[in-house]
Amino acid sequence: MAGLIGFFGSFKLVVEKYELLEHPNQALGCDINPFVSCSTVIDSTVSHLFGFPNPIIGVAGFMIPITIGAAMLAGATFSRWFWNAANVGFFLAWAFITFLFTQTVFVIGALCPWCMLVWSATIPLFWIFTVWNLANGRLTKNQRVRTAMRAFLPFSWVIPLVNYAVIAIIIITHFPTLLTVLFS
Questions:
Q1: Over the range 127-140, which residues count as b (16 or more CB within 10 Å of their CB) and which as e?
Q2: Which of 31, 59, 84, 151 is 20 to 30 Å from 138 at the Cα level?
Q3: Which CATH number among 1.10.287, 1.10.1200, 1.10.1740, 1.20.1440 corresponds to the domain 2-23+32-182?
Q4: Contact 27, 37 (CB under 8 A)
């Protein structure tokens, strides 16, 4: 599910980028106010760190968890190296969106709804997958860690929830008038 949600958000960002290129003076559908503005984020230098729009990474990258999920539903099994590589990839995705979050809030000064959708998909994808991998002994052979993570697995949603809370607190403290603007 996280892969599908992240793919959708990334795809919408690519579409918005093309809309902005075709109609540079027209507001995008996700330009709600000065605080919530896709255009501001999409036009920033951080939106294309590798020379092309960042959402293209998301469109390609979110195909990985979608494919893994579909393969597992079909009964596929994977080697330990595969699970470790996927975990490294999901960590890099989480680190990248965390970097983009800090740039969006502290440097650009605007929030993008589609970006936030991608963040919301990447966060549980990394954290819950990591706990699941630990519980299944793929990241470590330490039996204590494995047992602890098996017991914690049903509650692994707590880590993404804390991650979301940190993001929400940072946004609310950095944009103190955002809530009144959104709800007025």
A1: bbbbbbbbbebbbe
A2: 59
A3: 1.20.1440
A4: no
Per-residue pLDDT of the chain (184 residues; tens, 9 = 90+): 999 999 999 999 999 999 888 988 888 888 888 788 888 898 899 999 999 999 999 999 999 999 999 999 999 999 999 999 999 999 999 999 999 999 999 999 999 999 999 999 999 999 999 999 999 999 999 999 999 999 999 999 999 999 999 999 999 998 877 777 666 6
Give whole-number Cα distances, 70 to 7, 31, 66, 74, 83, in Å. 15, 35, 6, 6, 15
Name the residue ranges covered by the structural domains of the chain: 2-23+32-182
**170 Cβ partners below 8 Å, 6+ apart?**
105
Q: Is 36 helix (H, G, I), strand (E, B) or coil?
A: strand
Which helix (H) or strand (E) segment is 24 a member of?
none
Strand partners, 114: none
- Judged on CB neighbours under 10 Å (0-12, 13-18, 19+), 52 is exposed
In 3D space, the residue among 98, 121, 113, 120 whose CA is nearest the CA of residue 2 turns out to be 121
